[in-house]
């Protein structure tokens, strides 16, 4: 549903020039529900196309129709949020929640936070596909967590199934790509009270990744691995 984002300039700007586009309201809910209704009625729609590198969406970009024997799969951070599928009958929904439920420990024995695993994935993806520098994703992450706590976590209990997507071997892969940025963030934000959130996260992830051995040869990672969505080389189209 990323294609249903409003244009980037419609989101308020904070003191750092960042924008909060993590809330469900950042998506065009009326258009989403209109299109869902039409699809379930067997009608053809034309979906928008959002370009992350420009922050703009183009309306009526792609034709789409749901055949009688097809299932509509909605991929969205806010898929459990009621307003997202308000026009779809409850009996027609199957809610699947995917989370990085990893059990990795840092050198001091503390468990890796699931949100930190997702932060690594998003930093890698944003760097290559969203026109965002890794530190921009890091300093933006407080918006992600705020939205998760308000709009996602309260609705997890509604999921029909939960899948663990954590992959232990992804951490050495991300270390090669991102470790230097966490080192930089720890130094840059250590004495900046306005960036305390970013510093705490950077320090925690830096400590987790530091003892890991780098993996330079990624040929052993299968093309259908989930981590390929973030490091490239996937056999799937996104």
Task: Give an overview of the whole structure.
There is one protein chain. The protein is an alpha+beta fold and 238 residues long. It has two domains: 93 residues, no CATH class; 137 residues, no CATH class. 36% of the residues lie in helices and 11% in strands. It is built from six helices and four strands; from the N terminus they run αβββααβααα. The strands form two sheets. The protein has a two-stranded antiparallel ribbon with strand order 1-2. It has a two-stranded parallel sheet with strand order 3-4. β1 and β2 form a beta hairpin. α2 crosses α3, α2 packs across α4 and α4 crosses α5. It is globular, with a radius of gyration of 19 Å. The model has no long low-confidence stretch (mean pLDDT 93).
Structure keywords:
11% strand; 2 domains; 6 helices; two-stranded antiparallel sheet; two-stranded parallel ribbon; alpha+beta; 238 residues; globular; 4 strands
Summarize the structure.
This protein has helices at residues 29-40, 114-129, 134-152, 170-189, 196-209, 228-231, and strands spanning 44-51, 56-65, 96-99, 161-164.
